[in-house]
Amino acid sequence: MKNRRTLFQASVACLTLAAAGALPLAQAQEQDPLKVGFVYVSPIGDAGWTYQHDLGRKQMEEALGDKVTTTYVESVSEGADAERVIREMAASGNDLVFATSFGYMNYVDRVAKQFPNVKFMHATGYKDGPNFHNYNARFYEARYLTGVIAGEMSDSNVLGYVAAFPIPEVLQGINAFTLGAQSVNPDIEVRVIWVNSWYDPGKEREAALALIAQGADVVTHHTDSTAIVQAAEEKGVYAVAYHSDMSKYGEKAHLTAATHHWGDYYTAAAQKALNEDGMVESVWGGVQDGFVDLAPINPAVPQPVQDKVADIKQQIKEGQFHPFTGPIVAQDGTVVLEEGQAMSDADLGQMNYYVKGVSSKMPN
Amino acid sequence: MGLIESILFATVAAGTPLLLVALGELICEKSGMLNLGAEGMMSIGAVAAFVAAFTFESTWFGLASAIVAGALLSLIYAVITVHLMANHVATGLAVAIFGVGLAAFLGKPFEAKVLPSIKPTELPWLSDIPVIGPALFGQPWMVYVTWVLFGLVVWFLAHTRGGLILKSVGESPEAATAVGIDVIRVRYLAILFGGAMAGLGGAFLSLFHTPMWAEGMVAGKGWIALALVVFATWRAWRVFFGAYLFGGVMIAQLFVQSSPIPINIPAQLLSALPYLATIVVLVLISRNAKMIRLNSPASLGKPFRKESS
After folding, report:
1. Does B117 sit within 8 Å of A234, measured CB to CB?
2. pLDDT surpasses 50 at B301
3. Three-state SS at A291
4. Which of B10, B104, B267 lies at the smallest CB-CB distance from A196?
5. Confidence of residue B112 (pLDDT cuts 50, 70, 90)
């Protein structure tokens, strides 16, 4: 009984696979519009990580008109469910699939091998393959700039940082923010609270309030909700938002936001697929490529500071300045980068320490 | 506000929604009905409160619709378990999952909208007490309402005929039926009360704590509240202190993390503490048969078929 069932399931799976493999080819021959699928980790909402990716999707639709059709699935958790969604995306005739969260990496890897004719793009990961490329943004460049603003605006010399998980990308942000703040105010200390969740407004708020109670007068976050900006507005301190311009959640508090933008890249990727010209390269794009930017700066920030930030941004854009330029000293005093050197991408990708200036303990 | 005041203040804010939900669950379980749907009822309450408060610009409307929404969802549980006599645990879990999903669906158009935050109401005299004054008596008014509700529950259980009837139904529905108590009606009322309180707990989150609706904002607080009732061994006063103890643990781990003083407790361990504490209590009370008989309702979780009707 059991055997027969397995056999049945296996044959169904084979059929599905065969059908799925044939579909994209058939569609390309008919010159149908390019079908592009997006897998989102959280609801689109009105601000945040997924919202920014969806802006990118819309920009691509606008740029390419009826040459593309897009679909998306939101709130796909980073578990086995993701593999099912990604496989369905590929099986239902999408030519190009964007998987926009780190935790999808291994699932994309697996599905990409089963669908060699579908192009897979994965955000913020490090694996790739013949039909599986990845893309990421140098968020730390914008973080450095926000650190400069926060360092200038703080009176208490304590900055608060609400963070999700201690992975290199988040640590790059904390360290760049700290370096930026210290570049204008060497007395600054940054305190960090890990909430162990990308999205938990209640806990993010409690963490922000805890930081404010400990003297932080500028708070920022590497989480997805708007709760930190709201908490700062309530308590009359400043906030630096992440992902999106969140000024409508706290007009007085919102100094600026470290934002990321995907539209140009998505358009280029789709255009390349339309031209049947292979895939866009894997990329780690920064200010220079338009991947990261700052939201409009609060008028409360004095003009000289705004000018200084614009100047540093220009230097980063022109490749004259790297936020992680030595000497960089870790929290425990060891020199991790000698004077004058810029940190390599490989070292950035393995960052697992706080720099000097962060006063909280690293979770072990 | 100093550091200690801030910690206490945040503890009260974190514990209050747990207290609301756990009080409702306590009454519900005292009638013998084990409703595990708190997470779902909280979610529905949170979204209903936000939508109503946002649409009609009235906190009262928000609270009222949270009560109705929580109660309506618990009604599903009531019909399935009381009338159809289905398994309590399975039904409760279904209600929890359904509620979370339905709340996400209903709240979709309201995502990322915000309400003006509700300013704390300082009680005269009391809020001037050093240290505990601002923390206990400088809270949003819903906190005081919660304490009044707690007082009513204590009084109801200990000093009223209704409380006796409720407990007798939970101890032995057969005996209660024999003395002429309408077990079905009592259980319905207890379940509806539990649903309404869970709805209020959700409303506290979406109106007072973070005045916004976001999918998944309840974030497991319903499950903690369920654990809390067991932790408190079905006693109202222990529910009260347990709620603030659990709230305090949730807050303490945040303060511990950001302080430069090196305290080497992993944050994950602190987050898990409420559940660990509950397991410890479960182990302790299961070692002592008398304690179980004294506190937990004997018919808890058992379907009841009314004979000869």
Report:
1. yes
2. yes
3. coil
4. B267
5. low
Q: Judge whether B50 and B204 are in contact, CB under 8 Å.
A: no
pLDDT of residue A342: 92
- A2-137 and A139-259+294-349 share one CATH topology? yes
* Separation CA A207–CA A274 (nearest Å): 46
Is residue A211 within 8 angstroms of chain B, CB to CB? Answer: yes
Question: Is B238 inside any structural domain?
Answer: yes
Number of domains forming the structure of chain B: 1
Q: The dihedral of CA B190, B196, B199, B204: what is its sign?
A: negative
Instruction: Using alpha carbons, list the distances in angstroms from residue B245 to A40, A219, B69, B211, B266.
Output: 37, 27, 28, 24, 18
Q: CB distance B112–A226 less than 8 Å? A: yes
Give the nearest partner residue to A214 out of B3, B13, B112, using CB atoms: B3
ipTM (interface pTM): 0.79
Contacts of B255 in chain A (CB under 8 A): 210, 213-214
Q: Which residues are B7's β-sheet partners?
A: none
A139-259+294-349 in CATH: which number? 3.40.50.2300
Domain encompassing residue B279: 3-295
N- to C-terminal Cα separation, chain A: 50
Q: What's the topology of domain A2-137?
A: Rossmann fold (3.40.50)
- Which residues from chain A sit within 8 angstroms of residue B262, using beta carbons? 361
Q: Is A45 on the interface with B (CB under 8 A)?
A: yes
Residues 6+ apart with CB under 8 A from A119: A95, A96, A97, A131, A133, A269, A273, A279
Q: Which tokens hold the place of B248?
A: 């305090």
- Integer Cα distance of B69 and B103 in angstroms: 10
Residue B279, H or E segment = helix B267-287
Query: Domain boundaries in chain A?
Result: 2-137, 139-259+294-349
Give the tokens for residue B110: 């309201």
Measured distance CA(A229)–CA(A207) in Å, rounded: 12
Inform me whether the pLDDT recorded for B308 exceeds 70.
Answer: no
Q: Which helix (H) or strand (E) holds B259?
A: none
Is A267 touching B (CB cutoff 8 A)? Answer: no
Token digits of residue B61: 């409307």
Q: Which of A43, A195, A202 lies nearest to residue B215, judging by beta carbons?
A: A43
B308 inside domain: no
The verdict on residue B309 lying in a domain is: no
CATH number at residue B11: 1.10.3470
Residue A24 scores a pLDDT above 50 = no
> Nearest C-alpha of chain A: how many angstroms from B98?
16
Rounded to the nearest integer, the mean pLDDT of chain B is 89
Nearest to A156 by CA among A87, A115, A212: A212
Q: Sorting pLDDT into bands at 50, 70 and 90, what band is B231?
A: confident
User: A363 to chain B, minimum CA–CA distance in Å?
Assistant: 7
Note whether residue B135 is domain-resident.
yes
Name the region of B279 (left: φ>0; alpha: ψ -120 to 50; beta: rest). alpha
Q: Which of the two residues, A324 and A80, has the higher pLDDT score?
A: A324
pLDDT at A268: 93
Residue A103 sits at the chain B interface (C-beta within 8 Å):
no
The SS3 of residue B305 is: coil
